[in-house]
Amino acid sequence: MTEPAKPGILDRLRARYHWFDHVMRAQDRYQKSKGDFYAAGITYYTIFALFPLLMVAFSVLGFVLASRPEVMAEMEKRIKSVVSGDLGRQLVNLIDSAIDSRTSVGLIGLATAAWVGLGWMNNLREALSQMWDQRESENGFVRTKLSDLLALLSAFVAIVVTVALTALGDGSVLSKVLSWFGVHDFPGLGFGLRIAAIVVSVLVSWLLFTWMIARLPRESISFRSSVRAGLLAAIGFEVFKQVAWIYLRSVVHGPAGATFGPVLGLMVFAYITARLVLFATAWAATSSDNLRPEPVPAPAPAVITPRVGPDEGLSTRQWLAAMVVGAFGALGLSRLWRSSR
Questions:
Q1: Span of 32-36, 140-144, 164-168 with lowest mean pLDDT
Q2: What does the pLDDT read at residue 28?
Q3: CA distance 285 to 68
Q4: Helix (H, G, I), strand (E, B) or coil at 7
Q5: Would the CA dihedral through 205, 207, 210, 215 be positive or negative?
Q6: 107 phi and psi, to 5 degrees?
Q7: Model pLDDT for residues 241-262, shown as the tens digit of each residue
Q8: Which are the contacts of 238, defined by CB distance < 8 A and separation ≥ 6?
């Protein structure tokens, strides 16, 4: 009798530590729901959205410069003083043409940003829904796009509020606020403000990620199921921000780093952030209070296939055996018949 196989090291760790079992369940859900694939799609739309946003930014700048001719004159003067000759005049003409076409550039940028934003939101909501193991929505095309547009506007407001609160929690801003109240620099103030800025950033990110995990899926989830996952994502996001800041400072010194470093850094930043949010969502979906029994599929129908073959009759050996048995049987019957008479 063979002995049962011993459990592996991962099985023993999962049976011993509940948190490790939860992490492995989240990783299984993340891989099963194609988390890396959706994270790559979110990264693509994030980078693609930068171009229409830059167009909108240039349009807004053009409107500002058109309403402030003294600022425009000062800018042209500085450009000509730094870049002389035909190149300086070409740069001035380029700025003038950009200001003249500010309306068309802004409209095209807004339309493109709305189109790309809807694609980004659709991909993000679909990814979060897959992490929650939600089935495909039955809504029509128009209703789905209107829902995505409303979610996009809500996400835009939430991100603006998050950035504003994070900026208010920055150490330099807090230092200026304290100076307004007459609190001057003293030993340990910079370190304390830095810690306060990190705490504020984590709290604000916690609110944002909790809202994303609970409200952006196709079927809204209660905040209770997403609070711990949002905190996990916020802490991981803050750690990643600190590492990314060190990376950017180390690669922007050289000419190649100054050219390609920010772009590559932005791509890595968007991809890691997307993976972090999706994994936190999978972690929330696989918590003990959200686990649902897997549906047991019905067994496959039984197929009965009778085997029918040609009747080949008895073989030569079988015929001989039957004849011998028949002869002995007849002989025995004849003897019984004689003895009875």
A1: 164-168
A2: 92
A3: 53
A4: coil
A5: negative
A6: -65, -45
A7: 878 777 666 665 656 555 666 6
A8: 198, 201, 202, 205
